Amino acid sequence: MTAKRPAPIHDKEEETIPDPSLPILHALINPSVEGVAICAEYITDNPAPVRKKGYAKDKPGEYPYSLDHTDLNTLIENCFGAYDNLKATRWIVYLPAGEKVPPSSKLSSKKKRSSKEKMLPLVPMYIPVLLCPYDTFFQIWRTAQNTDNQYIPGDSFRYISTLMESIVRLIQNGRFKPSAERTFAGYHALWVPALSPQEMAWVSEFSKRMPPVCRYALPRVAKEPFFPKPEARVEKLIVEMMRVIIRSALTGYTLKEEKDPFFEPTQNDKQFMTDLIWASDPVKDMGLERSYSRAMQDWLTFSSSGRFTPFEFCMIIKDPPEGQTEPWDFTLSVRSEAEPSLFIPAGIIWELPDHQSGLFPQAAYLKHILHAGIGLLTSSSSALWGPLSGTKPTGGSMTLKEAATFLGSDLARARRKGVTVLLPDWWTDTTYTPRVEIHAKRRDPTHTQVKIGLQELLSFDYRIAIGDESFSPDEFWEMVKEKAPFIWLGGRWISFQPDAIQHALDSFSRHRSKGGDTTGDLLRLSLKKMENSEVPVSIHARDDWVADLLEFFRTETNQAVPVPKKFKGTLRPYQEEGFSFLCQCTRRGFGACLADDMGLGKTPQTLAWLLYLKEKEKPRTPALLICPMSVVGNWEREIQRFAPSLRSWVHHGTDRCKGDDFVKHVGSYDLVLTTYHLAARDLDHLKTVSWSAIILDEAQNIKNLHANQTVAVKSLTGERRVALTGTPVENRLLELWSIMDFLNPGYLGSQSAFTNRYSRPIEQDKNSELVHELRSLIRPFLLRRMKTDKHVIDDLPEKMENRVYCTLTTEQATLYQAVVLDMAKNLDKVEGIARKGAILAAITRLKQICNHPGRAPRDKSIKAERSGKVSRLLEMIEEISSEGDSALIFSQYATFAEELAGMIERQGDTPVLLLTGQTPRKKREQMIEEFQNSTTPIIFVISLKAGGTGLNLTKATHVFHVDRWWNPAVEDQATDRTYRIGQKRNVQVHLMITAGTLEERIDLMNQEKRTLAKEVLAHSDEYLTNLSTKELLEIVSLRDSLFSREDA
Questions:
Q1: Which CATH class name applies to 799-1047?
Q2: Can you tell me whether residue 26 is helix, strand or coil?
Q3: How far apart are CA 658 and CA 655, in angstroms?
C-alpha cells in the first residue's frame, strides 16, 4: 500500500525579526528526558561581553541573551496560559564561540553564518529552560495555533510545530496501533506508531533538517558529550505525543461491551482495553497462564518496534463462471510488500507450526496478519459474516446480492481501514464505463428567429451509453440486478457507480426550468458539471441550430467579425476580439459584459459594435447608453473620434425633451446618452421606447439591488443588453449577480438561490470549486482582460505601488484616542440602527483625524504641520514637482480635498486643480484639458467619488491615495485614470497610511482581498457595524509608534 507523507518536509528559512523587542521562543527535545524544554532569548545588535580567555569546552558559560526562569514563566503565562507543572532547570546548548568572540545571537539557528563563525568551535552555554510534560506541551502547542504573536517562533519551535502537525495527521490517518510493554508490575497497554516504509523514510529525511539548536542541546553537562541522533529525538516525540493525543481524544469515551460471534473477551482482555484507553492499572502477570503472556506477545509481535509489517493481508475476488451472475468466489492470503507477486495462501498459513523456521516468517506473525485482516473485513461488511464464520477461513463465496453489497459500499470502507482487496481487471477498466448523454434539439424547428435568448425551448433526451450502445434510464435500470455496481453486457463485466448515475440524472431535473428545457438549461449543463458528479456527462446536438450554440458556449475565443468600415481608427488585436465578443453574444440574443481592466479601451470596442449594428442589423430604434455624469463628455469626444457617423444625443439638462417630444426626438438618432440619475427620474419617458440596445457604462452602478436606478434600468425594454465595467465585483458577489441579472435575467437563478449556492460559500468559506464553477457559468457572457497581462498589451509601462507610513502628531493622537474611548464607553448603550449610525459616525471622525486634526471639530485653522500625513504629502509633492512630474491626489472627502488643494497652493508655485462633485460639467472638461496639455508640473486634487472613474489623465506619473477606502477596486479605478493606454512612463502609486491606526487595518484587509483570486470581496464601513464592541475596538485602537518624533 502506498502511504501519503504525513506533512511536507520542514524547509528551514532564514528568520526575519519583525520586532526586536519580542522574545524568540525555542523548543528542545532529547530522548533521555520526558517532556519538551522551552527556552527564550532576546535579540540585540549589541554583542555580549567577551571573555579574554575565550570559552572552555567543558565548563559551560552563561548564555547572555536568554530569559531567566521568572521572565520565561511570565512569557508562557501571557501567551499560552498558566501551568503549575513546569519544571525550572538548565540545559546545555553548544554554540560557536571563541577567544574575543561572543556566542552568536539567535542561538545557533543562523542559516548563514559569517566565515569567521564557521571557523569557531562549539562550546557549551547554560540556558534556563522550563521542562513541560508532553501533555502540557500539547496544550501549549494547540494554544500557539490561535495566539496573537507576543513572541517570535524560533527555528526549533517552528520545527517542533511542523512535527506536531505531522503527528496529528498520522493519527487522523489511523497510523497507530495498540502494544504491550512488560514492567515489574505486569503488562501496560499503550499506543505506538504504525508507519509505512514511506512514512519512515519521511521521518528520516525530516530528522536531517533538525535545526542546530535542537541537535546540539543536552539536559546535562558531560566531559565527553553524547548527542543523540536527530532521528532518535524525533521518534521519541512521535511515540510520546501519539499516546498523549490519542488518550486526550478518548477522554469521556465509554467502553462498550459488544457481542462478537468469534471472540469472547476475558477479564484480562477487558483490563488491557481499559489500560489502553485510560492508562489505568496494568494487566497483572501474577497468576496468569504463560499462554496468555505468549499469546499477547504473538499478537503484538511487530507492534513494539513501531514499524509497519513487510507483509499485508489480501482478499482476492474472482469473476463468476462465464454467463452466470454468481457465485463470486474469493480467497484470503498474505502478500509480501517487498515482492508483491509473492502470495502465501491462508490455507498454508493456518497449517504452519507456531514457531517453525525456514522459508516463511514466524507463523504466529502471519496468523496475526490473517486474524487482523479478517477482523477488519467483517467489521467493514456484514455480507462477509457468513463466508468468514469458520475458525480458520481461507476464503468463501458471495451471492450476487452479497457481492453487490460488498462491492457497492463496503469495499471503500474496507480499503479505508487498510485492507488490500484485489479485483478483476475489468473493475478499473474505464473503456466501457457507463456515461450519461444528453441529446438536445430545438423544440420548434420552424422557428427561424436568429436571436435565441436563454428562454428558447428545447427538447432533451437523456440516454445512458455503454460503448456503442445506449439505453433509456428505464432500460438501463432494468438490466441492473440487485442494484449491483456491475453489469454483464456484450460478453463482459462492466463496473459503474449506480448512485453516481442516479445523482447525475436527479441533478438534470434540478437544473430544468419549470416551463421545460431551455437554452439556459443547455448552457448550464454544458458549462457546469453536476454537483459532485463522478459520471462522464456529454451533450450532443441533434440539429445544426443546437450545434452552433454548443460551439459558442464551449469555445474560449470568439469567431472574428470584420470591423465596420466607418470606424475611424485601428483596434488593437485584443480590442478586435472584444468587439467580436459583443457581436457574437448579442447576435444570439444574449447579454454581454465587457469587463476589461480600466484603460484598455472599452469605449472604442463598444462604438465599433454600435456601428456594426447600424450597418448589419439596421435597428429601427436607437440604442440607449446610461453612464455616470462624469463620463458623458468623454463619450461625446470618443464618438466624434471613432464613430462620427453615429448620430448621438445627450438626454440631460433642465431643458431636456419629455413626453411625446421625447419619443419623436430620439427617433432621429442612433444613440441616446443619459445618466443613471436621470434613468430613474425620467423612467416614464425612457420606457416609452423599445430600445435597439441598452448599454450600461460603469455598470457597477447597479450593484445595489434595491436602489431606484437599479430597479429603473432593469425595467427598460431593449432588444440587446451590454454592460461595461472594469470592476464587475467591488464588494460582494451579489453585485455580479445584479449585472448578470440585467444582461440575462434568471440565468444565475434568484437572488436567494445565488446567495445560497455561491455568495455565502465563496465569501465565507473561500470555496475554490464553486469559484471555478461560477467562472465557467459566466465565461460565455463576460470577457475580462488585464493591463498586466503582456499577452493583451505589451507596450504599457510598469505600475509601482508603495506604502507611505505617516505618524500622528500629539494633537491627532489625543483626538483619536478620545474618539476610541468614547466608542468604548457608549456603544454598548445603543442597539440596532442607532448603534450602526454611531459606529459609522465614529469611523468617519477617526478617518478625518488621520487626515488632519482640523477636520474633526470643524477647525478653520488648517495648517499642514498639525498633520503628520499632510506634512509628509507636501514634502513628496515638492520633490515630485522639482523633478518635473505631475500628480493626482485622491481623497474620499470633498471638503478635505478643497482644504488640501489650498495647502498645496500656499506651499509653492506648482499649479493646482480641484475636482469635486460640485464642479460643473463644463469646468470639469476644461480642467481635464488643461491638465493633459500642461507642459509644466501640475497637481490635480480629486474627490474619489467625483473623479474616480471615466477620466483620462495620463499626464500624471504619480498617484496619491491620501485616505484609504475599504474597497481596493475603487482605489484601483482611481489609479487607472493615469495607468491606461496612452501612458508612456512608469506610474508610481503612493498609499498613505497612518501607522498604528484604523488605516493600517484597512490596508491589511485590502491586501488580503487582492490576493483572493479577483472574486473576493471588499468590505465597506457597513461591515464594521456588525462587529461586537470588543472586535471593533481591536480594529480602531491605537497601537505603538504613533507619534512623530518632532512632536513627541
A1: alpha beta
A2: strand
A3: 9
Q: What are phi and psi of 757, to 5 degrees?
A: -80, -40
Residue that is written with C-alpha cell 505631475 in the block: 886
Gap between the Cα atoms of 853 and 861, Å rounded: 10
Q: Which three cell numbers, joined as nine digits, stand for 878?
A: 515638492
Cell 542541546, residue?
217
Q: Which residues of 819-851 are buried (b: 16+ CB within 10 A; e: fewer)?
A: bbeebeeebeeeeeeebbebbeebbbbbbbbbb
Residue matched to cell numbers 540545559 = 91
Q: At what angle do helices 832-851 and 1029-1036 cross, to 10 degrees?
A: 10
Q: 573-783 and 799-1047: same fold?
A: yes
Question: Whose grid coordinates read 566565515?
Answer: 115
The one-letter code for the residue type at 660 is D
Give tens-digit pLDDT for 659-696.
Answer: 888 888 888 999 999 999 999 999 999 999 999 999 99
Task: Tell me how far apart the alpha carbons of residues 1010 and 1004 are, in angstroms, rounded to a whole number.
Answer: 10
How many distinct helices (H) and strands (E) make up the chain? 38, 33
Q: How far apart are CA 441 and CA 460, in angstroms?
A: 7
Q: Give ∠ CA 882-888-894 in degrees, rounded to 5.
A: 130
| Amino acid letter for position 623 | A
- Which residues does residue 912 pair with via DSSP β-bridges, in sequence order? 939
C-alpha angle 25/29/31, rounded to 5°?
Answer: 175
Residue 964, classed as helix, strand or coil, is coil
Asked if the peptide bond before residue 47 counts as cis, ω within 30 degrees of 0, the response is no
For every residue of 893-937, which 3-state class applies, written as one string? CHHHHHHHHHHHHHHCCCCEEEECCCCCHHHHHHHHHHHHHCCCC
Give every CB contact of residue 382 below 8 A, 6+ residues apart in sequence: 405
- What pLDDT is stored for residue 807 in this prediction? 78
User: pTM score, two decimals?
Assistant: 0.49
Q: Give, rounded to a whole angstrom, the gap between the first and last alpha carbons of the chain.
A: 67
- Computed on alpha carbons and rounded to an integer, the radius of gyration of the chain in Å comes to 37
Q: Is 535 exposed, middle or buried (0-12, 13-18, 19+ CB in 10 A)?
A: buried
Helix (H, G, I), strand (E, B) or coil at 265: coil
C-alpha cell at 673: 446618452
Q: In whole angstroms, give the CA distance from residue 199 to residue 3.
A: 7
Structural domain boundaries in the chain: 24-248, 311-423, 441-474+486-554, 573-783, 799-1047
Angle at 688 between CA 686 and CA 691, to 5 degrees: 70
**What's the CA gap between 996 and 1042, in Å, rounded?**
6
- For domain 573-783, the CATH class is alpha beta
CB 410 within 8 A of CB 419: no
Model pLDDT for residues 693-722, shown as the tens digit of each residue: 999 998 988 988 889 999 999 999 999 999
pLDDT over threshold 50, residue 3:
no
